[in-house]
Design brief:
Pfam families: JHBP. The longest helix is centred in the last third of the chain and has 28 residues. Strand 7 and strand 8 form a beta hairpin. About 25% of the residues lie in helices and about 40% in strands. It has five helices and ten strands; from the N terminus they run H-E-H-E-E-E-E-E-E-E-E-H-H-H-E. It binds 2-acetamido-2-deoxy-beta-D-glucopyranose (NAG) (2 copies). The site of one 2-acetamido-2-deoxy-beta-D-glucopyranose has 4 residues, from strand 8.
Length: about 250
């Protein structure tokens, strides 16, 4: 079965694998020839994500909720966001609450697709920024809490085949996502050296204009979070042969 999408997201602490690993025995598998392959995938991927809430010793994965993101840099936008957002020691909460809306695989093109929705995603950690947003100056260095509500994510993964010891593995050359939150809230602490009135004011402006702000830098978030999914998906797929994932 395929956890690519979030299996990907899966996790971090992967042990070093000397050779091929197996999927946990209690995870569902799908047959490649199943006429209902897409339904099977959707169900099994979602179940795997929920099971991974506690990590998977078989795969050497620790829990990925929260997922640790040591560093994330979101560049300036082309519109109202004239500031680079530097995040450090972020924790991303909520991925294991994701629902998989659909998923499919194209063996000829070696592509995987999935759509998911995550009811509540929260990024918490340290930020620094100095620039302008919506024409207002914004300078800060402190803790932040960025919450995304009902975020639809489209996942498109492009694989290449590798043969190791006679078994076929997929590694992903590309993992692209689109992020579409229904709503976002920003809370940046310690803006303007802790000037509370100014800081509250800026947070309020950001929240009232969240969509304009997010749209301008959305590509940065998609690249940053997509890169994390990409890395994690490859960690799983590079150790589990394809025949373990989709039964032949
Ligand atoms: C983060 O912000 C959300 C939305 O404002 C809020 O519900 C949540 O309690 C905050 N969490 C923390 C840990 O500050
Ligand atoms: C996500 O995929 C769906 C179904 O293919 C499509 O309707 C939607 O426009 C896509 N969203 C984005 C942001 O590309």
């Amino acid at each position: 079965m395929a956890q690519w999408c979030f299996v990907g997201v899966v996790v971090v602490a992967i042990l070093a694998f000397a050779s091929a690993a197996r999927l946990p025995t209690d995870w569902g598998r799908c047959h490649r020839t199943d006429p209902n392959l897409e339904i099977c995938l959707r169900e099994n991927v979602e179940e795997a994500i929920h099971k991974l809430k506690n990590g998977s010793p078989e795969l050497g994965l620790s829990s990925f909720d929260p997922l640790d993101i040591p560093e994330l840099v979101i560049g300036e936008g082309k519109g109202t966001v004239h500031v680079t957002q530097h995040f450090k020691n972020l924790k991303l909460y909520g991925l294991t609450g994701s629902k998989v809306l659909s998923s499919s695989v194209d063996f000829n093109e070696k592509k995987l697709y999935a759509r998911s929705i995550t009811p509540l995603l929260r990024l918490q950690g340290h930020y620094t920024m100095a620039g302008r947003i919506l024409l207002l100056p914004i300078v800060g260095d402190g803790e932040c809490n960025i919450t995304l509500i009902n975020t639809k994510i489209n996942h498109t993964l492009t694989a290449e085949e590798k043969i190791k010891k006679g078994k076929v593995f997929w590694t992903f050359k590309d993992y692209s996502i689109t992020l579409t939150p229904e709503k976002m809230t920003y809370k940046f602490d310690n803006l303007f050296d802790g000037d509370k009135a100014l800081g509250d004011n800026i947070n309020q402006v950001l929240n009232e204009n969240w969509n304009e702000v997010f749209s301008d830098v959305r590509e940065g978030y998609e690249k940053g979070i997509g890169a994390i999914f990409h890395n994690l998906a490859n960690r799983v797929f590079s150790v589990v042969p394809l025949e373990e994932i989709y039964l032949l």
